[in-house]
Amino acid sequence: xxxxxxxxxxxxxRAGTIINRASLDxxxxxxxxxxxxxxxxxxxxxxxxxxxxxxxxxxPDHAVLGEEYGLQGPEQAxxxxxxxxLDGTTNFIHGLPNYAVSIALxxxxxxxxxxxxxxxxxxxxxxxxxxxxxxxxxxxxxxxRSRYSEALLGAHWPKSGDIDAGGGRFRxxxxxxxxVRRLGSTVLDLAYVxxxxxxxxxxxxLKPWDLAAGSLLVQEAGGLVGDFDGEQGWLDSxxxxxxxxxIFTQMLxxxxxxQD
Length: 260
What we know:
The chain is an alpha+beta fold. It has helices spanning 3-23, 42-58, 89-93, 169-176, 186-194, 208-220, 234-237, 245-255, and strands spanning 31-35, 38-41, 63-66, 70-72, 79-87, 100-107, 110-118, 123-128, 133-135, 138-140, 152-156, 179-181, 200-203, 224-226, 240-243. 34% of the residues lie in helices and 28% in strands. The chain has an eight-stranded mixed sheet, with helices on both faces. It has a five-stranded mixed sheet with strand order 12-11-13-15-14, with helices on both faces. The chain has a two-stranded antiparallel ribbon with strand order 1-2. Strand 6 (100-107) and strand 7 form a beta hairpin. Helix 1 runs antiparallel to helix 2 and helix 5 (186-194) runs parallel beside helix 6. The protein starts with a helix and ends in a 5-residue tail after the last helix. InterPro entries: IMPase, Inositol_monoP_metal-BS, Inositol_monophosphatase-like, Inositol_monophosphatase_CS, Inositol_monophosphatase_SuhB. It comes from Bordetella petrii (strain ATCC BAA-461 / DSM 12804 / CCUG 43448 / CIP 107267 / Se-1111R). It is an enzyme of class 3 (hydrolase). Mg(2+) binds at residues 67, 84, 86-87, 210.
């Protein structure tokens, strides 16, 4: 295993311990609002602080971009860690055990290492570029399902159930598949695509810390990641599709505006 991946796993597990301990007494949580339907707790901050401490102790010259504290370290650093200390905060504060820690390492802008850790289930998803994707040391692959009518998708859209956003494109996407699940944690959605639990994922207006680690998990598991036009601008736009190759192509077709 790559030594930098080992450090990321150590950081993710330390953060998971913080999250699990806090989950035992949710009534004592201090919850703040960053925006509409956007919450942050002291657990998010403590988790990020723990991750940054672990990463910077091992690699003091690396930069770290986190959801809660922004960029720490040199802006033009060759290596940059991108972290989400608790993706699925709304689930967490409601006691719904569907949230995760996400840590990715980029080298010159390319994601090379990825960890997504689900502390409530003790599931660890990892990937190193060129070495495949693993769930708790077992190699995983994207789904082999080829019929879009049988595909189960994950989704992150601006509003719950707003399938008419984007000129009705999402309605076209949902009508052809077997079902769509909004699980409330993008990083887990992407990990589940990589493990074949979901056949595809569609997300809109996402941030780099939502996508960096999960994108490598999907790619190393044999899947495709692209924006709504099938191009590679998804990290900048925040609009992303991720799926097995056959389902990806059909999702892309379903998203295209209908011709009059």
